[in-house]
C-alpha cells in the first residue's frame, strides 16, 4: 500500500443536491435533514444542502437546520454564476444564497466555450466577467467560495487556453477551492491524470500561501460522474495526480448514471492508498450509513455494492469458505469490520460442510464435522433447493431448518389451516375488491380461530395471523413486512408452475428473510409469512435471554 499519511483528503458530499437528481429519487424536507445529520455523524467535512431559491424545499432546509446546526460539518449552499448582463449585486438569484446563512458557497461556472456560446448565449469575455463578479460579490458578503469548474475536462480538451483562463479568473477573485468537474462523465482515468497533472504543473494557477492555513491557494478538487463506469477510478486518479478534495454522493446516487460513490471512494483512499479521510471509528460506520440512507431515500440497498453491500464479503463456494475460515486474507481484500460490514457464509446447493459449520457458528451453534446431523442438514438443504428453495437469500429460514434438524426448533404456534377469499362487485368500477383470510392456530395448548381483511390475500393472511397471535405474543405489534418478492420457477409450465416467495420482515431494528415454495402462490406466501413471524419471535426470545444473562 502506498502511504500518504501526511495527506488529508477533504470529502464533499452532494447527495442532497446532485444525488437527489437521480431519476425516481425524491427527498422530503425531513429526509434531507435526516441524511444531513447522518453525514455529519459520519464525519464528512462539507455537506452540500442544495440550491436555495431553486425550490421552496431547499430554502426551508437551510432555515430548519439553523435551529439545530450540524456538529462538525460545514453546510454548503450551491448556485451558479450571475446571469449575463446583470451585476452580481443586483441579481435576485444570489439573495437566497446569502439568506441561507452558510459560511461556504459552492459556485459553478462554465469552462467549456461550447456551453458559453451555445448554452448561455453570451461571449467568452462575459462568461469570465460573470465568474469574477459573482465570486468577488460573495467574498464581499463574507462568504468563502468553492468554485466548481463545470465541464472542465471537455472544455480543456477543446480549448485549453480558455479553460485555464476561467480558472485563473476564479482564483484571482477569491475562490479557495477550484474543482475539476467531469460533468458529462465521459473522461477516462488516464485522461484525468494527464490533464490534472498538466494543469497543476503549469504554474499559472499558483497563488501565495495563506497565512492562516499555511496552504497554497487555491486547493484543487475533483467531481466525477459515472456515465463511463469510471467515476470512482477517475476520482482516485485525480487524487493521485494532486487534488485534495473529492466530491461525490452516498451510494453513487445522481443524475443519469450517478456520481462518484463515496462508499467506494473513501475506503479506497484510506485503506488502499493511505490517505486520511475519516477517523477509523467513523469509517467503521460507513456500511450502516449507506444502508440508512438507502432506507431514507426509499431505494433498495445494492447488495452487491463494493465494501458496504450485503454480499461484499459473502462466501458461497465450499472451497472459498474453508479457506476463509483458516485465513480471511485468502478471499477478502480488506477486513469487513473496517467499513462496518461483516463476513457472511452463503448457504446454497453449492455448499459443502464448511459452509454448514461456518453458518452454524454465525447462529451461535457449534457443530462437529463428524456429527451425522451435519450431513443430514446438507442433504436436506440440497433437496429443498432442487425443489426451488433459495436459502442464500433467506437465512432466517435456513436457521429454522438447522434448528429443526438439531431438535432445537420450539415452534411458538402451529397453523391448523387457513382460507382466503377475494370479493369484488362486478361492474362497480369505483369499488375495490377486498380479501378476507381466516386462520386456525394452536397456541399454548388451545385453538384460536381468527379472521381479518386486507387489500390483498397475503395482506389479509398476515393480518389474520397477527390478530390471532398478538394476545399471546404482544411483541408482534412491532413486526411488519418490508418486502415481498415472487418468482415463477418454471415459466414454461404456465399457471401450474412452482412459485418461490421471499418475505422480508422487520421489528424496527433488525431485518430477516424467509422463503416459501409451492405450486400455489398463496401456500408459498403462507409458508414464508409464518416462518417470518416464528423467526421474529425467536430473535425476541434470544434478546431477552441475553439481557437476563
Describe this structure in words.
The chain has 18 helices and 18 strands. The strands form five sheets. An eight-stranded parallel barrel has the order 1-2-3-4-5-6-9-10, surrounded by eight helices. The protein has a three-stranded antiparallel β-sheet with strand order 13-14-15. Helix 8 packs parallel to helix 9 (231-241) and helix 15 crosses helix 16. By secondary structure, the protein is an alpha/beta fold. The radius of gyration is 29 Å and the shape is elongated. The chain folds into three domains: 10-278, Alpha-Beta Barrel (TIM Barrel); 314-405, no CATH class; 414-548, 2-Layer Sandwich (Double Stranded RNA Binding Domain). It is 39% helix and 20% strand. The protein starts with 9 loop residues before the first strand and ends with a helix.
Question: Which helices and strands appear, and what pairs or packs with what?
Answer:
Blueprint: E1 10-13, H1 29-42, E2 46-50, H2 56-67, E3 74-80, H3 95-99, E4 104-110, H4 113-119, H5 124-140, E5 144-150, H6 152-158, H7 160-173, E6 177-182, H8 189-202, E7 209-210, E8 215-216, E9 219-224, H9 231-241, E10 245-248, H10 262-272, H11 280-283, H12 286-296, E11 314-315, H13 318-326, E12 344-345, H14 353-362, H15 372-386, H16 395-405, E13 414-423, E14 434-443, E15 446-454, H17 457-469, E16 480-488, E17 499-506, E18 511-518, H18 521-548
Parallel strand pairs: 1-2, 1-10, 2-3, 3-4, 4-5, 5-6, 6-9, 9-10, 11-12
Antiparallel strand pairs: 7-8, 13-14, 14-15, 16-17, 17-18
Helix pairs in contact: 1-12, 5-7, 6-7, 8-9, 9-10, 13-14, 15-16, 17-18
